[in-house]
Amino acid sequence: MRLAGRDLVAIEDLDRPAIEEILEAARALVPAAEGGSVRHTLEGRLVAMAFFEPSTRTRLSFEAAVQRLGGRCLTIADPAATSLRKGETLSDTLRMISSYSDALILRHPNSGAARLAADLSDRPVINAGDGSHQHPTQTLTDLATIQEACGSLVGRRIVILGDLKYGRAVHSLIWALALFGNEMVLVSPPSLRLPESVRQRVRHLAGRIREEDDLATALADADILYVTRIQRERFPDETEYRRVAGSYRIDRATLEGARPELRVLHPLPRLGEIAPEVDPTPHALYFRQAFLGVPVRMALMQSILGGGA
Questions:
Q1: CATH fold of 11-133+293-304, please?
Q2: Calpha distance 78→50 (Å, rounded)
Q3: pLDDT tens for residues 206-238?
Q4: Span 136-290: which CATH code?
Q5: Is the CB of residue 265 less than 8 Å from the CB of residue 286?
Q6: 179 alpha-carbon distance from chain centroid
Q7: Residues with catalytic roles
């Protein structure tokens, strides 16, 4: 019960032992996530799901996690149907939602919204993605997938490809990978390179970061290729987006020189950056990754709401 009653706003809210405990609990919860066993850890608990921007995997996997543990969800999936449309402030909306529930799971297009919610609420708040800031539960899911594929989270070579400037999943993941002593090879268009603020956050950790212009070179000895889409909705300038859209595409030819053990991850949705022809290959792990979001979020909810992890 290391996290009982606590917020999870950024991945830095977790130390390495806490992450390891969550991942261990998640492995044990896979049968329950698949519907093969019944858990009642959250019996009588009501969890508010406040999603102020579109979501498929994150929202549904959280809802599945809560319900697989015997809890219930109170969900906002369309901000246009709330009193925000009438001019109510976000602060008032968050206070109200929090008061109706035992925990608040928030996704919002503005960076810092999750921290605002945590400051306002006396209930645990979990960040389900805030603007281009962070997405800590996606990182926990990514780590669970890498661990399942490689057997260990330590000392791996991870190639991260795509939108490293606006990609909140990447901003969380790089910190966690560095915490476990991995090497990260970054490949992106020049205008979408990793922000200096993210680099500064990980400099004191055991991981290493280097940039590579040539993807084939980066993949030569890689254990994982983590692909992200170029996120049109994050760009302040449509012209900037059009300049980099379609900059890369992973297909069978791309992977010909890679190690047979290389596994490809993607937080999804994909918009052409991974060809469907990759899906049936042993490299593709992104749909398994999406499923593992359920046991990982089950483990997190158990820990935060007092059931242990």
A1: Rossmann fold (3.40.50)
A2: 9
A3: 889 999 989 899 998 999 999 987 765 555 566
A4: 3.40.50.1370
A5: yes
A6: 16
A7: 57-58, 86, 107, 135
